[in-house]
Amino acid sequence: MTGAPGVPDPTGYDPDRIKCVVWDLDGTLWDEIAVETPTDELPVPRAEMLAAIDALAARGVLSSLASRSAPAVLDRMGAAPEVRERFLAPQVSWQDKSESLRRIAKDLGIAVEALVLVDDSPYERAEVEALLPGVRTLDPGEVPALLAAFEDREVTPESRERVRRYRTEETRRAEGERFRGTREEFLRWCDMRLTVGPAVADEVPRALELAARTHRLNSSGLTPDRLRTLAAADGHELYTARMSDRFGEYGIIGAALVDRTAPGSWSVPLLALSCRVAGRGAAAAFLFWLMERARESGAGEFRVTLRPTDANLEMRILLRQAGLRRTEDDDDRDDGAVLARSLEGGDLPKPPAWLHVFPRKDADA
Question: I need a surface site. Which of 185, 196, 258, 280 has the fewest CB within 10 A?
């Protein structure tokens, strides 16, 4: 079976780490060389490649393009929207493939290591492997094995909507570039809203997905299996955060597990948020809401488990800015350090002024 999140897959791929597959054009997506065609019509894409792209999209995996070719080829793709619309943040130019992948990752707001390159050229694959060793590269003939890694995995509503939401994100980014004003003014104009509350049953699969797939804004890397077990244990509660703005719904973008078994204390073994909301204050707003709710419940201390990684510097900075500091009783822990702060007296941090935070209507039901 390949369906358990966090369990190594026998095909050799880790579906939880793959967020975008980047496709070459000539010799990969289609047989011909586009710049050598006698007309402006594009070569006919291989049916099996389009089917693979659609199968990945149905499981929440994005697709992009990286082709060393004339930029005009991408312009010509505008005449074939049924092909062009399958790809986000495409790069078609004479630059190195490794640079194209860096730009794709930046535009999508994901780690370069979350990319997979499919390219028929051994030279191009070797160039990427040398300069981006965290990126997996595949010959087109290996695509069926990649697809097999995603078989039988649970697909959440957010997964099915992920490609559409990234397209909405492209619209947000374009509007931000056109906006005449400061970044904060633009965020205010977006009318961003965060709705937070205890998770209901149909939100648990998305919380497990966030635990497995997030890295930049993940405090501890708690495995989905461990999260599921703890969430069902006495004295534990799972919270989720949904976000929306004038452009549409982001869906569930945050999950937090709260341990209330110690008297007078709220402990958070996991705080995880989607990278799609990085830089918009959602992580801070979710954390500060949890701290405020802890104080309202009578807790005098707030604790978060942190396992530092190369990827979660942003989360570490946030926890420090929230006043959490390493405790002296975590020297023997193998699941990460414990950061804590008092909730007694004084004001707690407030969410960014541009982000409106609401408790879910049934949060106290």
Answer: 185
